[in-house]
Write a structure and sequence with these properties.
The chain is an alpha/beta fold. The protein folds into three domains: 13-130 and 243-372, 3-Layer(aba) Sandwich (Rossmann fold); 132-241, Glutamyl-tRNA Synthetase, Domain 3 (Glutamyl-tRNA Synthetase, domain 3, Alpha-Beta Complex); 383-524, Ribosomal Protein L25, Chain P (Beta Barrel), CATH 2.40.240.10. The strands form ten sheets. Strands 16-31-32-33-29-30-17 form a seven-stranded mixed sheet, covered by helices on one side. The protein has a seven-stranded mixed sheet with strand order 27-24-25-26-18-21-28, with no helix packed on it. It has a four-stranded antiparallel sheet with strand order 6-7-8-9. Helix 3 (66-81) crosses helix 12 (347-356). The longest helix is centred in the N-terminal third of the chain and has 16 residues, at 66-81. The chain is elongated. It starts with 12 loop residues before the first helix and ends in an 8-residue tail after the last strand. 42% of the residues are buried. The chain binds adenosine-5'-triphosphate (ATP) and magnesium ion (MG). Residues 57-59, 67-68, 70-71, 258-259, 304-305, 312-314 line the site of adenosine-5'-triphosphate.
Amino acid sequence: MSATDSAPKPANFLRTLIERELQDGVYAQRQWGGTPGDAAHHQAGPADPAAVRLRFPPEPNGYLHIGHAKSICLNFGLARDHGGVCHLRFDDTNPEKEEQEYVDAIIEMVRWLGWDWNFQGTEHLYWASGYFDFMYRAAERLIERGLAYVDEQTPEAMRANRGDFTTPGTDSPFRSRSVAENLARFREMRDGKHADGAMVLRARIDMASPNINLRDPALYRIKHAHHHATGDQWCIYPMYTYAHPIEDALENITHSICTLEFEDQRPFYDWLLARLSEPATLADGRQLPGLLNAPAPKQHEFGRLNLTYVVTSKRKLKALVDDGHVQGWDDPRMPTLAGLRRRGYTPAAIRKMAEDTGASKSNIWIDYSVLEGTLRADLEGQAARAMAVIDPLPLTLTNWAELYGAEHREPCGAPAHPQLPELGQRSFSLGPELWIDRDDFAEVPPKGFFRLYPPRSDAAGVTTPGNKVRLKYGMVVECTGCEKDADGRVTRVLASVVPDTKSGTPGADAVKVKGTITWVGRHDGIAAELRLFDRLFTLAQPDAGDGNYLDALNPASKTVVTGYVEPSLAVAPADTRLQFERHGYFVTDRKDHQAGAPVFNRITTLKDSWGK
Ligand code: ATP
Ligand code: MG
């Protein structure tokens, strides 16, 4: 577990619970066989060196998103903080849907977030499909104990006979079959003798239970489907509710943390693991030891994390990709971890957000601006500064040639970061032709405008001189006019240098100015593609209510412009995070950026503009 954030950890109910259980020695007697396995395997091993075991169990059917990051940081963080380990387990019990692309992406993003599944030299990466043999054996055990039966009702009859909240269920006519008959039928299912949907294996619990999940839930279904790992070995596959507790128990998990919607499944989780870990005496008198190690894992539920202005369902995210609303899973507007990384988010900011939101017993909504605030706080102290012009307008210094000679370039410099001298200096130079941002000039200045505006005379003939500003790290210039095209659009700003005002020289403070603007030299600036992003959806909760979330897509969520950046960035490697002074945080795009053809994504502006 490698992520090491030193900040104090806010309390949450799971942390409190684990600390109390460790104090009480609840898991102190557990043995561990070195790999996942059944009771005999673990009981032949030494005391479990991991004080607690948790797991993150994604289904490899899509990319991880910010909600998963919450679950990852919670599970891996709790394990790290309590002398334990968190397993990465691919929940691949459902054939057909899984793809290697997703598996690779999940591994990459969990690592990117700063976590690993190594504990004392052992890797704990597992596949639920690796447990199919055991799951089958456990199903036969349940049948032998009269706790499961093969039901041949049609799916419709099964549904109708389940009852509802007010009506108890009705027993299936197949519920009272003999053990021998059930075993024979189940083996036929396994051996491919029956078609998909012809029958299912069900637990025999209580058709009148007030908890509908206990009304004889299905354990196995027939599915003649190829599985990415087990190929055509199986044509029956375990149901999630049956498979998941067994996966946890085989891996000696102590705390099985899941989201709130699984709360109603907890009684079945406990029922199943209790039956499979206790010794049993069969009708024929045979005595059998428990199949699963004890104490059994316990399930705990916490509230999902939702983020405003995005959707976080894999299905909906997939639709955005498949229908071309975004350019791939890693589009910088996507709330996927791949998208957030490409956007320039730091793993530390995401971990901090997860830590700050703790764990609660209700689903929570995080405002996108909170996530951005956490990111800004992280970037502020580490991102090197640079100057860039986003909406370029030429500025000509008309007296440059006369003062210094047309070919003269005045070297300028600045620290890469105001508080981090170790990041060194950046250098660039001033010349007669520069780029400035269009909104740093106003032909007719609004009240309180301290940037460039030309001299003018009012109706009474009173003349106001052109405004003076400092070119940041350079000299003071005085605006003398502008040029316009036929449509009246300003095409060039004219100014003259005020001599002896260079930053860092004794004369610098002789002329007081109210405004400082950023700029890039036309002789040494580098043209760059700048990708500017806005929220992906116009509604805070695009998938709440009855509307189609796609109707809430923001048509202006991405703008691409050509800007200019200072020459030190000519060789910036991909994934470099910077603060463009006054414009926000940017990152070199990890896919498209190249030396000579720079591409920057705006991570976020310097101030929050979301809530407004
Ligand atoms: P989705 O609904 O997006 O398809 P999922 O829950 O089906 O997500 P899984 O791959 O099954 O995706 O999830 C792996 C783990 O991540 C589960 O333990 C799940 O509870 C957790 N998880 C998924 N979404 C969130 C969320 N929004 N907040 C917290 N945990 C989440
Ligand atoms: Mg799921």
